[in-house]
Amino acid sequence: MSESTLEKVISLVRAEYDSAWYIWHGGEPLLAGEQFFRKVISLQKKYYDKAITRCGNTIQTNGVLLKSRFIEFCRDNRINLGISYEGGHDADLRPDIDSRMIEEIIAYMVKKGHMFSVTSTVHGGNIDKMGDMYESFKRMGASFCYSPSLRIGGGLDNEDLHLDADKYADMCIEMFERWIHDVDVDIPVMPFNQYISSALNAPNVSDCAHSSCLTKWICVYPDGSVYPCGKPCVEKYRMGNVNEISSIDELFKSDGFRNILVDSIERRKKCKECEIFPKCGGGCTVDAMADGDVQSPGGFSCQVYKKLFKHIAATMVRIINEKEDLSQYNRFVRDAVIGKLTNPNIITPM
Fold first, then answer.
1. CB-based contacts of 21: which residues, under 8 Å, 6+ apart?
2. Is residue 297 within 8 Å of 274, Cβ to Cβ?
C-alpha cells in the first residue's frame, strides 16, 4: 500500500468515526517492513492527536519475521499481535515455519505480558490434532482460536483442506467439554469463550460472523479497492476505491454494498424461523457465499454454528438451572455463571 493511500484511509476514517480498529493482514503484512508500521503510527498520531487512544491496531502474521525490537515497538504503541500458528500441528499447511522459533516468540510475549493471540487453522489434514493444539497452547500459556478452513480463497480448490461440518462440530464439542472441565487451564479458547458470552447475554460483538458486522467494517486492498469484509469477496461486492472518494459514507452508498445487503437480507428472511437466529443474525454473508448459496442458510458455517452453539447454550443453562458445583469447571465458566447470577437483567435467553 502506498503512503498516499495509507494516509487517505486513516484521514477518512478519523473524519467520520470517533473510534476505529485497524487490522493489518494479508498475505503476510510484515513483508511491508517495520518502517511501514512506524508510518502507520505516525499518521494515526497526526490525525487522532490527543484522541490517539480512540484507535487501535492488530497485525495478523505468521510470526516468521517477528523480532524482539518490533515486538517492543508494538507494545509501546498498543499494537496487538495475532499469530497464525497451529502449535506445530499444521500438517504441512505452513511448510516453511520454524516451530521452535515461533514458540520462542510466543514464550517471549507471554513472559513480557504483551497483547497477542493465536489463530489456529483447522482443516481436513489436522482436524484430529485439535486436542494436541490445545495442549500445546495450554503449555505455552497462550490464548488461541480454532479457525476452520473455508472453501474460499486459498481453501477453495484444495480438497485436503476441506472439512466435514458434522465432524468439525463434533470435534469442537469434544474440545469444548475438555476445556471447560480443565479446572487448571488459564487460557480462554475461542470461539468457545465467545459463544458462552453470547449464550448468556447479547451476541458477542467480537464474534463478527454472528453479530452483523455490515456497516461496521471495511477491507481496503493495497491499491485502495474497498470491500465489506476481510475475507475474499466477489467483485460484485466491491464498494469503490479510497483514492476516488471524499468520505467513507460514499462507500456504503455504492452498488457493491447494496449487493451484499440484498443478499444478506434474503438469507436472513429464511433464517428467521430458526431457534438460534437471535444469536447468529443469519451468520456471515461471505461464509454463506463460500458455502455455495449466499442467499440461503444451511451450509458448512451454519451447520457448525448451530450444532456447537446449541450444545454450549444448553450446557450453560444446565449448569445454572441445576446449580451444579462450579469447582468442576474452569475459571472462565465460573466467571460467566457468576456474572449471570449477579447481573440477571442483562441476560437475553434463547
1. 55, 56, 57, 58
2. yes
Using one digit for the tens of pLDDT, what is the confidence trace for 270-293? 999 999 999 999 999 999 988 888
Looking only at Cα atoms, what is the longest distance across the chain?
Answer: 60
Rounded to whole angstroms, the Cα distance separating 323 from 320 reads 5
Count Cβ atoms within 10 A of the Cβ of residue 245 and give its class: 0-12 exposed, 13-18 middle, 19 or more buried. middle
Instruction: Count CB neighbours of 48 within 10 A.
Output: 17
* DSSP track, 85-128: --TT--TTSSTT--HHHHHHHHHHHHHHT--EEEEEEE-TTTGG
Helix (H, G, I), strand (E, B) or coil at 309: helix
**What pLDDT digit, counting tens, does each position of 61-104 carry?**
999 999 999 999 999 999 999 999 999 998 778 888 899 999 99
Q: Are the CB atoms for 195 and 207 separated by under 8 Å?
A: yes
Task: Give the model's pLDDT for residue 344.
Answer: 75
Tens of pLDDT, residues 140-163 = 999 999 999 988 766 566 778 889
Torsion of CA 223, 228, 232, 235, to 10 degrees: -70
Ordered strands of the 144-148 beta sheet? 20-24, 55-61, 79-84, 116-122, 144-148, 189-190
Angle at 213 between CA 208 and CA 308, to 5 degrees: 30
- Helix, strand, coil percentages, rounded to 5, for the chain: 55, 10, 35
Q: pTM of the entire structure?
A: 0.91
Residue 57 has pLDDT above 50, yes or no: yes
Own/partner pairs, 92-101, CB within 8 angstroms, 24+ separation: 92/125, 93/121, 93/123, 93/125, 93/126, 93/161, 94/62, 96/64, 97/62, 97/63, 97/64, 98/64, 101/63, 101/64
The C-alpha cell that represents 304 in the structure block: 457448525
